[in-house]
Write a structure and sequence with these properties.
DNA-binding, 5 helices, 4-stranded antiparallel β-sheet, homodimer, 30% strand, elongated, alpha+beta, Alpha-Beta Plaits, Arc Repressor Mutant, subunit A
Chain lengths: 145, 145
DNA sequence: GCATCATGCCGGATGACATCGACCGCCGCC
DNA sequence: GGCGGCGGTCGATGTCATCCGGCATGATGC
């Protein structure tokens, strides 16, 4: 659906969402009204979900991250899912195939913080926790080909 | 480090990174030059890593996502890490404690696409794959308290 | 083959916006 | 009590986004 110019716009905006239209226009060889049109369309059709900001969690006090696999106890699936949605330290969660029903990313202030959160779901689900030691690939775009 | 006003700015920008300074200023009760100053500071100190754009991968043709746990064979850790960084379909990867050394998110065009990518690392690492069925929590901010 | 229409683009005018400089008030410090 | 730095406001200026009218292109229907 998106053509080559759309893809270039997406790439540019991924690197800096606050680039002025004029600059974007110059980079892709169009006028600013045209770029404005395209962005509006991309946003309307949902390809661009939102313009947002990448934050360093460490500087907000979340010096620790964990990836937790969550297996709800029998009959507790929906309860656990609701719980997951309500724990604000879970900043991302996927529902997946396999024994591990959910895979969640936790933002934590310290290791006791982890303990507290896992405790709060321990009676409704089994969990396997992996502490994040490094992030070799930080969120990036898939190929746009 | 960030005060209450900074946190409100972050919240506003997370929802819409292209909000004009004037609007931000009105929302937090400051003038636009002040807001501009604060944003510049937040960006310089790295708390704001980047202004970026949230994209719907499905509309780029990536109708499938998978979470893959990757255990490099003995002696292959660095090789595998380099490989991971070079596979563009891996849009996110954490290095974690435990048997699973890496946890990666893959963007895929179809199920055979998954097979192709896993094949390309099968002789250097063991993998466990979970297909994403739903995303109960889409990337969001942790509490800013 | 031609008229018609929709689409995507441009250029210029207008109004909104960001930026810059000058100035002010508050607070901690000597 | 005077001083300096920090964080703020205000107003002027230049840049920018948006709106509007018009044009070229390609598809559609007669």
């Amino acid at each position: 659906m998106p053509d080559d110019i759309d893809r270039r716009l997406l790439t540019l905006l991924t690197a800096n969402a606050r680039l002025p239209l004029k600059e974007l226009a110059a980079q892709v060889g169009l006028s600013s009204p045209s770029v404005s049109d395209r962005l509006r369309r991309l946003e309307e059709q949902g390809l661009i979900r939102a313009f947002t900001v990448e934050i360093d969690p460490a500087q907000l006090g979340y010096t620790l991250q964990a990836i937790v696999r969550i297996r709800p106890l029998p009959g507790r699936l929906h309860l656990v899912q609701r719980l997951i949605e309500e724990i604000p330290e879970i900043t991302e969660c996927d529902k997946v195939t396999g024994d591990d029903c959910f895979i969640a990313r936790l933002m934590l202030r310290d290791i006791s913080h982890l303990d507290r959160i896992l405790d709060s779901i321990a009676d409704k689900a089994e969990t396997s926790t992996a502490i994040v030691k490094a992030q070799p690939v930080l969120r990036r775009l898939p190929p746009l080909a």
